[in-house]
Amino acid sequence: MQGKIYLVATPIGNLEDITLRAIKILKEVDIIVAEDTRQTLKLLNHLEISKPMISFHRHSQEERKIEIIEKVKQGKNIALVSDAGTPIISDPGEEIVLKAIEEKIEIIPIPGPCALITGLIASGIDAKEFLFLGFLPLNKKTRKEKLNTIKNAKQTTIIYEAPHKLLQTLKDLQEITKERKIVLARELTKIHEEYITGTAKELADKEKEPKGEFVIIIDKNSEEEQNIFENMNLEEHYKYYENLRL
Ligand code: SAM
Predict the structure, then answer these.
(1) Residue 7's closest CA among 76, 80, 75, 74?
(2) Domains of the chain: residue spans and CATH
(3) Tens of pLDDT along 75-120?
(4) Which end of the chain is more exposed for a tag (fewer CB within 10 A), N or C?
């Protein structure tokens, strides 16, 4: 009988942020497929779990994916983890999931920490509707397209960014978001956890030498909404709210 693949979320900082179910699965599986085995070893040591590990990262070759799938077909249960948080989300593993679906292998997600959700819920920015864009691309054309999406977004946008690229990203955001509110959620769940709020310019002025990990949460573009109100007379204003109540 073939095995199963568990997609196991691991902590994004605080090692206590791991579910009972995740620990149980990590103890039970035959093999752990990790993005960086040294990083995962720290977590396993903390949990006092000893397991064979295979690495699978963004530069892994096709053969590694086949090797992992073959092991599952031979009956091994596998847990796939990334260095931090929820695997697949801006992390490797999607190819394994696609191949497993093709091979009719059962995939079981074990939910847990994810930086974008953790940052969003404490940001004070509208969490009813949001758009997650991962890391902004470096390629000029695609980066411009993504920035344009943020510019026009009618919902909150969330992006990830590395500290050494934060200032450039804030500079790019400054041009398109102007006075919109942005929250930098820094070092989530860690000792230096912090939420810094301001416009892109204010944040760039504050963060001269960014350190740590950041989630960037950007308020929606409500310009259109403001323009609607500016051009309404009192009666239209009244009708607008009447309609909202219907
Ligand atoms: N799979 C992960 C998740 O579930 O959030 C994301 C992995 S992605 C390669 C790493 C990026 O996530 C970082 O550059 C940062 O933007 C964000 N991130 C991860 N951990 C974080 C933390 N503790 N505080 C703030 N941002 C974090």
Answers:
(1) 80
(2) 5-113 (3.40.1010.10), 116-245 (3.30.950.10)
(3) 999 999 999 999 999 999 999 999 999 999 999 999 999 999 999 9
(4) C
Task: Enter the pTM of the model.
Answer: 0.91
pLDDT digits (tens, 9 = 90+) for 2-33: 999 999 999 999 999 999 999 999 999 999 99
Tokens of 95: 């190819």
Question: Best mutation site among 35, 117, 186, 213 for ligand 1, i.e. most ligand atoms within 8 A of its Cβ?
Answer: 213
Residues 6 or more apart in contact with residue 208 via CB below 8 angstroms: none
Please say whether the beta carbons of 75 and 3 come within 8 A. Answer: yes
Cβ < 6 A, ligand 1 pocket: 12-13, 82, 84-86, 89-91, 114-116, 160-162, 185, 187-190, 213-215
